[in-house]
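Format notes (please read before filing issues)

Several people have asked whether sequences and structure tokens are stored in separate files. They are not. Every record keeps both together, in the order shown below: the sequence lines, then the token lines. Line labels are part of the format and must not be stripped during preprocessing.
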Amino acid sequence: MARISAIYFCAMRKLFYLFLMLSIPASAQVQNWDPEPRKGDGGIRFNDDLDFYLNSYSKDEIKAMRQEVSIWRMNFDKMIRATIDDIQAYSEGSNMVPRTHDFTLPEVRTGVPYHLAAHKGKLRAFMFGSISNPPARAQLPFWDKLLAKYDTSEVELFVIYGKELHPGDRKKFSAFPAPSTMEQKMRYATEFAQLTTLPVLVDGLDDKVLTAYGRVPNGAYVIDADGRLIFRGTWADSRKIEHILDTVLKWYADGRPKLKAKG
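Then the structure lines:
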């Protein structure tokens, strides 16, 4: 009985943290993340930002995202089990091997496969997103500005269409239940692509690439020109991505000077 109570308490505590994720004010995530570059394995590296909470957003932005979804539509017990599993095993990236995971995925507009390893020599930054993922949708305009800022001969930015975060939820996403076929997922990704100028790659129905990168629904990652993973974040904050890209480009231009070892 005591063990059951402990499990229940842990479950409720995790669920409470989930609610906090949608109510904590802005700025904490940016202030708590150390932007200082460090010496990594063979090159530059940045501190990961595996913060589960949506601290990058203002209260009004969080309120708007909360209005798009209703977690109470889901079965309560199933919701708790799924939430705890994702928090403990994936949501903060703890289940991800912290290295570059190669992939080849189709771009939804052109159908042309994009092979990550074939694009060495460029910085690559990408995030995961989906139609029913409010934080990812909120980031698209900011990432569009990054796409316009950087020379594509030096930097590539794109989105990987991953898992529906709130499939079929409320009127906002009622037309987007979890896809049961790849054709259905491609249709969703095509509609998602209308919201952005970024290339949109489409993960498989098994979410293989999303899982390899920690199964973080709006995770963001930066790969350096040599193919090394140099940053991963739970949320795709464009400000962090811009800082990292600017810092690395300057470091390259300066001839890759020596850096401090990671402390």
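For reference, the curators noted about this record: The chain has a mean pLDDT of 82. The longest strand covers residues 123-129.
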